[in-house]
Amino acid sequence: MEFINQDYLQSLLEMGFSRAIAEKSLYFTQSSSLENSIDWIHEHQNDQDIEEELQIPSINDNSPKMTKQEAIMKAREIKSKFISQPKSTQFIQVKREPNSQRAQKLNATEQEQKRVLEERIKKLKGGQSQANPTAESTTLIIDAQTIPSDSPPMIEKSPKDRMYLALKTIVTLYPSHRHTGIAISTINTLKTYLSNIMSNPLDNKFHRIRIQNKSFQEKIIKVQGALNFLKAVGFVEEDDYYVLKNIGVYILAEGIKMLNEATEIL
């Protein structure tokens, strides 16, 4: 089917999406990237006809073939008909400002986002001790770097703490004005993994993630903190997969809450 990249389609199916949803997301984004397809799915997940099979009008064999440009225009026409309610925030006019002022505003916005995210996540995990304000930042640096083999043993953190640190690493290292879309795309991918397990706890296919899956490589392996988040949930490496053997409903629910909080302010 035109505009549907078969490699991307396979990756989406392995993530647990139905064929109908996967094909629609690829068709309406013209298979531009896995990231755009996943974002499209999250934007349209509540559409009433999301699970309906993609319907494309057939073309009579005797009719002249469409050029590539005509095919693109046709896809855009179908896409515009499919989206019935444009989002109010889809287009925002921004006044041009001197570079120095824009940089200052971007930095201030980033700091405010970090502060709000940190406060929300702390509430979810029960709050962090404020006795030593530098302890948290030091822990984050250790978590984000390789620990020397001769380091003294560290007290094992709870899954909730580990998820918190992993998520904070993602948000801190990949601010939107420096790495456009990376943090939100990774967080959406993590949310997809956890939500699929919560919705289908008895379906083993959602408990296994193939390491060579393109989406897993791009959104998890390459983004610092993402794999640590999955490990905190309970995923362990086994042959060519990361596998969740013991489902902790409470941990999954807490993880989804944290991810939802993060997406609200990114």
UniProtKB/TrEMBL annotation:
InterPro entries (alphabetical): PUB-like_dom_sf (IPR036339), PUB_domain (IPR018997), UBA (IPR015940), UBA-like_sf (IPR009060)
Keyword DNA-binding listed: no
Keywords annotated in UniProt: Coiled coil
Domain UBA: 3-44
Coiled coil, from the record: 100-127
Keyword Methyltransferase: no
Name under which the protein is recorded: UBA domain-containing protein
